[in-house]
Design goal:
Blueprint: H1 2-25, H2 33-45, H3 54-60, H4 66-77, H5 83-88, E1 95-96, E2 101-102, E3 114-116, H6 121-134, H7 139-150, H8 157-161, H9 172-184
Antiparallel strand pairs: 1-3, 2-3
Helix pairs in contact: 1-2, 1-6, 4-9
Protein name: Mannosyl-glycoprotein endo-beta-N-acetylglucosamidase
Pfam family, one: Glucosaminidase
Domain Mannosyl-glycoprotein endo-beta-N-acetylglucosamidase-like: 39-186
Length: 193
């Protein structure tokens, strides 16, 4: 599932970069409007600020280390045994403030968030990948990943876990929990596939 989501992200990135190259080679009048709409859609989805700047697509449309995704799903969903995983296909603890969601059993009375309901585990993985690739809280994650890739190094889940403090209210304890899970189950082997 994570590899599929990563491949979809890379396909969008490839389209965006190829289309941007085409834009620079031609005038705007000669461009296919449906492709331009697709570029705008990708930019909106990934919260791209400078629509015609390739560097932002390179930074935001990239793969998530599989070991990190596995570890976070395990930690967030209690290895798939949590109520949220079973009733909402929610593997990553995503919240919503909209209509559709599960109310956490111990939610404070003054809180209004719900646990987002996904149609399938695949949808939860897609949302997770998009979240890490687009949310401002994970800018450091993306910056580090870009540096690794520019130096032709594998960005492992252990490297990425260090940037996940803001993913959970547990902060540094959460990071340690992710690192322990990745090491205990030798999950970095999946980052090399």
């Amino acid at each position: 599932m994570v590899q599929d989501a990563n491949q979809n992200t890379l396909r969008s990135r490839e389209f965006a970069l190829n289309y941007l190259n085409l834009i620079y080679e031609k005038s705007f009048r000669d461009l296919n409007l449906s492709n331009l709409d697709r570029l705008f859609s990708i930019a909106k989805t990934y919260k791209i600020q400078k629509i015609f700047d390739p560097s932002e697509y390179i930074s935001k449309l990239d793969v998530i280390p599989v070991s990190l995704a596995i570890a976070q799903a395990a930690v967030e969903s209690g290895w798939g045994k949590s109520r949220f995983a079973k009733e909402a296909n929610n593997l990553y603890g995503h919240w919503t403030w909209g209509g559709k969601g599960l109310v956490p059993l111990n939610r404070d009375e003054n809180k209004t968030h719900k646990i987002k309901i996904f149609n399938s585990p695949n949808d939860a993985v897609d949302a997770y990948v998009l979240n890490l690739n687009s949310h401002p809280a994970y800018t450091k994650f993306r910056e580090n990943r870009l540096k690794f890739h520019q130096n032709e190094l594998i960005y492992t889940g252990l490297d990425a876990a260090k940037t996940m403090e803001s993913y959970s209210a547990m902060g540094k304890i959460y990071v340690k929990q992710l690192e322990k899970t990745i090491m205990l189950y030798d999950l970095t082997k999946f980052d090399r596939i």
